[in-house]
């Protein structure tokens, strides 16, 4: 077979999301931000930059809420309690940006106040908490979505499209990692057991949900790892086996002790896809075919959103998905459905069982 010449392409999302790379997201809903920390700031900066409406912020400390408001002057209201935010009749949807250990409590309370919610990943500490939130959303017919923003990025949408149409054949292996060096500090949220700290919920959720998106649920999980002095996990690896008749495997590694390449490779019978660092953020990727030809996909998202806080950008895509679903009267996203959130929580529960650690308050 004659090899193709290397080709470089720019691409748009494969699905029809309201935001198309360099377009503005529609100002159709008034967002409330529950929490005033780093991830809340990242999300807000990108939604505002894309044209969305962050209308209010709630914090347990009024001064912190007001400081957040000063950072983003377009925010009209600052509340010194989460309850104040939830009770605001002018808020259409709430983004929950608290530490993991608080997701369940405030997600339940937001739903009890009839507010649709976007809950930062990992969705909860465990499967049971996640199921309780989703059961309440079903009972009240309210929208809920996990904020796994990677699924909504243009390059991931394109990768999924290529895999689904058989571009690289049957998937045999997926290899992905997410290691970030956080010097040990027992007061840091990542090492705090009372905040459900550890590598799994903070870092591991990225490659785990990525693989679940592409391959579904594994039939067998093998997990190994080690703990930090505070007892939370800090250096983990896992093998996922899939009973799809092809013997597909996923090889994952993540941790808080060292920086890793943070890349991903999807290997199939006709070729492979390699996603550059950092695979879970807007990135480029290359398809390597068995005949020696290659096809490189380039994303213009870098140019338009690289000013995101600490280099974190692209979160407006998930916000646009929430707005699209609300406008269409949907209670869940087809890209990040409830069943996938529950499946990822089950996977992480099983890994914790094998690693033999629990979060505060668990029995």
From TrEMBL:
Domain annotation GFO/IDH/MocA-like oxidoreductase: ranges: 157-274
Oxidoreductase as UniProt keyword: yes
Keywords attached to this entry: Oxidoreductase
UniProt keyword annotation of Oxidoreductase present: yes
InterPro entries: Gfo/Idh/MocA-like_OxRdtase_N, Gfo/Idh/MocA_domain, GFO_IDH_MocA-like_dom, NAD(P)-bd_dom_sf
Domain Gfo/Idh/MocA-like oxidoreductase N-terminal: 30-147
GO molecular function: nucleotide binding; oxidoreductase activity
Family: Belongs to the Gfo/Idh/MocA family.
Name by which UniProt lists this protein: Gfo/Idh/MocA family oxidoreductase
Species of the source: Paenibacillus monticola
UniProt lineage: Bacteria, Bacillati, Bacillota, Bacilli, Bacillales
